[in-house]
Amino acid sequence: MEHMEWQHLVIFAAAMVLGWVSFIYFWPRLLLYAYKRAILGQGFGDGPVPVNTLYAERQAHFADPLHVPDSGSNLMNTGVNRDTLLTAGWLDLGKGPQILHVPDVAGRYYSVQFTDASKNINFAYVGKRTTGTEAGAYLITGPGWKGAVPQGVSQISSPNNSVLVVGRVFVENDRDLPTAYGLTKQIQLSPWTQP
After folding, report:
1. Over the stretch 53-72, which tens digit does the pLDDT of each residue have?
2. Where are the domains of the chain?
């Protein structure tokens, strides 16, 4: 009888460990999948955001997050971040490399993070802490891409063709919002084809 109790305990413990490992492994991937579907299908209140496009959080939404228009999306209301404007998009590098263009932000904090959606790992950043605040261009390439990087452009190699891009631009105060929004709108993607 005692032997049977140990068997049940071992089976229960194994099931619990397997359950936790599965949760830890799959939960972040499920969240990223839901975020991707929301971006590509619903956008941020103005309709879907096409693949390989960045969409900036609306200035009015940032200024009054509690009174989002009925047509708005709650996608950007996912935290307590109230000092940076957000821009987001989804890349499909299987269609070819993309060039990220960032403006000169004159010392202001900003960042653009690149997340491998298959592993939920941030693999690169562009911004004040990593690349500085001057204007720049970054060639984002998929795995195994071969080609020449244009002069004056830095390469960011992605481990996956599917990439979540999230950018942030610091807003100092209410009077600074239009300036920060203008800079956020200048963070853009464009397709690149090798000459």
Report:
1. 888 877 666 655 544 544 44
2. 40-191
